[in-house]
Amino acid sequence: MSALNTSYLHPKEFILIGLTGMESYQSWISVPFCAMYVLALAANVLIIYTVKVNHSLHNPMYILLAILSLVDLAMSSLTIQILKIFWFNQRAIAFEACLFQMFCVHFFSSLESSILAIMAYDRYVAIYNPLRYMSILSYRFLAKLFISHFLRDLILIGLLPILATRLPFCSSNVITHCYCDHIGVVKLACTDISINNSLGLFAMSSIFGLDAVFIIFSYILILRSVLKVGSKEALHKALNTCGSHLFVILYFYATYLFSVLVYRTGMKVLPEIHIMFALLYLLVPPVLNPLVYAIRTKEIRHVFLKMVLNSNNNTSTKSTRC
Predict the structure, then answer these.
(1) Contact (CB, 8 A) for 74 and 172
(2) CA–centroid distance for 47 within its chain
(3) Would you put residue 92 in left (φ > 0), alpha (ψ -120 to 50) or beta?
């Protein structure tokens, strides 16, 4: 009976350390992170609104951009807990809230990976077979594709906190991080965590690994299709577009891989550097994605400028009437 009870021991709360050794600078460090959060919030809300109110943008490419912006909003909003540590020194987080935060961090990250993979396929179809673009990427097919990825991510990531609740935490409750990460939490358990480790590796390879391979393969086919055309203008445009897309994708996957390797291989990296990369992993993609995928897109720029001009004309008309 005692063994049964011990298997369900867990602390009432965890303590998030934050940036150890840099406590006196945390309020200053929070300034650029706060600025990035505000920028990500404004840019992604603007994209969602622009796509929503303009029927000319109601096609798969821009719908995917709007969904990506929704996920970016969720990802960037996870930094609010981190800012509370930096500003108010609120390091304690309830056990259940920690597991929920763990789920949100990994679920929205995996969902972003899934959307990037679907967007890579969207660009491949648009370039390889533009005449059949709308028939291939119909709304029904797009919905099925998104729902299948959503359910895959939900099931695999949802199992992580479920299994973590069954671990006994009978020693330290201090997490050397700014937020609750899966490995950072389960490493505090005083029992064998091989099942949790195996599930984490399986989820990582099944989601991020497969998505990354699919994205690379899609962009190789895109470049191959463009090279067949032989037009220098088309090649320059494709390389410019694909280059900026691949830069954002590589940053997203590289920072994620770095964080995973530090935890799982025992790489000797200063905790401050590891935590800083983890913070940038949450904030930089939501800032870069609107710039690369939306503002650099000619159609969205034109629609946005048209909205601004119409707003200015309406304002000047009202002032003239007065």
Answers:
(1) no
(2) 16
(3) beta
C-alpha distances in angstroms, 306 versus 30, 50, 200, 291, 322? Answer: 36, 11, 47, 18, 24
At 158, list the tokens: 């949802």
What DSSP assignment string belongs to 269-302? --HHHHHHHHHHHHHHHHHHHIIIIIITSHHHHH
Give the Å distances, CA to CA, from 2 to 5, 7, 11, 97.
Answer: 5, 9, 17, 27
In this structure, are residues 83 and 34 in contact, taking their beta carbons and an 8 Å threshold? Answer: yes
Find the helix or strand (DSSP H, E) in which 174 lies: strand 174-175
Q: How far apart are CA 254 and CA 293, in angstroms?
A: 19
The pTM score is 0.87
Taking Cα atoms as reference points, which of 211, 8, 2 lies closest to residue 116?
211
Q: Is 223 exposed, middle or buried (0-12, 13-18, 19+ CB in 10 A)?
A: middle
How buried is residue 103: exposed, middle or buried, by Cβ count under 10 Å (0-12/13-18/19+)?
buried
- pLDDT tens for each residue of 264-307: 666 677 777 778 888 888 888 898 888 887 766 767 777 767 76
Between helix 298-321 and helix 26-53 the angle, nearest 10°, is 80
pLDDT tens digits, 177-219: 888 888 889 988 888 889 998 998 899 899 999 999 999 998 8
d(CA 140, CA 157): 26
How far is the first Cα of the chain from the last one, in angstroms, to the nearest whole number?
Answer: 81
